[in-house]
Amino acid sequence: MIYDRIAANKRNSIILFVLFFLFNLFLGMVFGEIFGLGYFGIFIAFFIALILIFVSFYKSDSLVLSISQAKEVQEKEWPHLYNSVDGLSIAAGIPKPKLYMIDDPAINAFATGRDPKHAVIVVTKGAAQRLNRLELEGVIAHEMSHIKNFDIRFMMLVTVMVGTAALLSNIILRSFLWGGAGNSNRKGGGIQIAFIVLGLILAILTPIIAQLIKLAISRKREFLADADGALITRYPKGLADALRKINADVEPLKVASEATENLYISNPFKKNHKSWFKGMFNTHPPIEERIAALDKM
What we know:
The chain is of the alpha+beta class and 297 residues long. It contains ten helices and four strands, in the order ααβαβββααααααα. The chain has helices at 2-34, 40-67, 79-92, 125-130, 133-148, 151-178, 189-233, 236-248, 276-279, 287-295, and strands spanning 71-72, 98-102, 109-113, 119-124. Strands 1-2-4-3 form a four-stranded mixed β-sheet, sandwiched between helices. Helix 2 crosses helix 6 (151-178).
């Protein structure tokens, strides 16, 4: 059952990623048609994405650590934390990631980096102090799973696609506001008008659609990391108990931002909408569902 869950989450995440990729190509085509560039608009979309990918690939981890005000942990300060990371990295079969800490009493953690060889695990001081050893190992194993499964790179690419889509839609929308779109002398007739209308609709809806796809992928990856983390520790109850403590912790993480909230093991702003519609805008699946899934393992 656990392997079926992992396989299903991987499959669904890949499907969502492919749909996101095709959506960006389509947006690039519409962009080209509106501005008289033809299929060159697709090339522009690719070029923007490549620049963002290059910058994110080499600088995203240091930027995230800076935003989160995380500091590298010394082994003599937190020996039990270092020992947990040592043992679990061996169990996960990945190089030992660097260890950073956020000086905040809230219980949370995240992983970042471009691959297992250049990965970082960040925990809050609250997690290190308020979780027992088994619970802390469950949290670390969850983050190890994100590293092992290349979620850190996968979500980086998704974020870049969101940025590309948002940038293209912003250019299209601004061109309509400035009266520049569709003012070329090309003969397009009804087709050209249709593309202009479609471009206006996409310019308005794309940021919302892109964000929804990103959040859907993020939720799928969290379920996968829970299941895979349980495989690493062979003790699902440790992570389940940690999630219970996180759920009972009402204090938000002060250094969290909207740019980094999807990275954390649990939403750092403590918002967890119950309804189906509002739940679409959550970065994480409901903790109750995650705990229930772990309890069945």
